[in-house]
Amino acid sequence: MGIIILIPEEEVLNDQSQAEVLADFRQAWHEAMTGQTIPVTQLWEGLENDCDRLEEKRNSLYFASS
Q1: pTM for the predicted model, two decimal places
Q2: Residue 3: which of 32, 26, 42 has the closest Cα?
Q3: How far, CA to CA in Å, does 33 sit from each of 1, 9, 13, 28, 55?
Q4: Contacts with 5 (C-beta within 8 Å, 6 or more apart), sequence order
Q5: In this structure, are residues 3 and 32 in contact, taking their beta carbons and an 8 Å threshold?
Q6: What is the pLDDT of residues 11-62, one digit of tens each?
Q7: Are 60 and 24 in contact (CB under 8 A)?
Q8: Which of 18, 21, 36, 59 is deepest in the core (most CB within 10 A)?
Q9: What is the pLDDT of residues 9-22, one digit of tens each?
Q10: What are the helix (H) ranges across 1-66?
Q11: For residues 58 and 53, what is the distance between their CA atoms, to the nearest angstrom?
Q12: Measured at the alpha carbon of residue 37, what is the angle toward residues 49 and 55, in degrees to the nearest 5?
């Protein structure tokens, strides 16, 4: 099993206290250790679907304004 840890932008870290960051990490670690995970393939499917919808919307706006 692989674990992916997303690291937020520096600005986000500046807005959160160290305690909040630690609490978020502990929650994420607990979820990973207890199998409360989402397969990476499922994550990519969601991202691809979102990108497809955004491209369709962009194209419809572009052609509507032409």
Answers
A1: 0.43
A2: 32
A3: 10, 25, 24, 9, 37
A4: 28
A5: yes
A6: 555 567 888 888 999 999 999 899 988 887 877 787 788 888 888 888 887 7
A7: no
A8: 21
A9: 665 555 678 888 88
A10: 10-15, 18-33, 40-65
A11: 9
A12: 10
10, two tokens? 């520096």
Residue type, 36: Q
Greatest pairwise CA separation for the chain in angstroms: 53
Supply 43's token pair.
């994550």
Task: Say how far apart CA 64 and CA 54 lie, in whole Å.
Answer: 15
- The Cβ-side half-sphere exposure at 6, using a 13 Å CA radius, reads 7
pLDDT of residue 33: 92
Q: Do the beta carbons of residue 37 and residue 31 sit within 8 Å?
A: yes
Q: The tokens 């499922």 sit on which residue?
A: 42
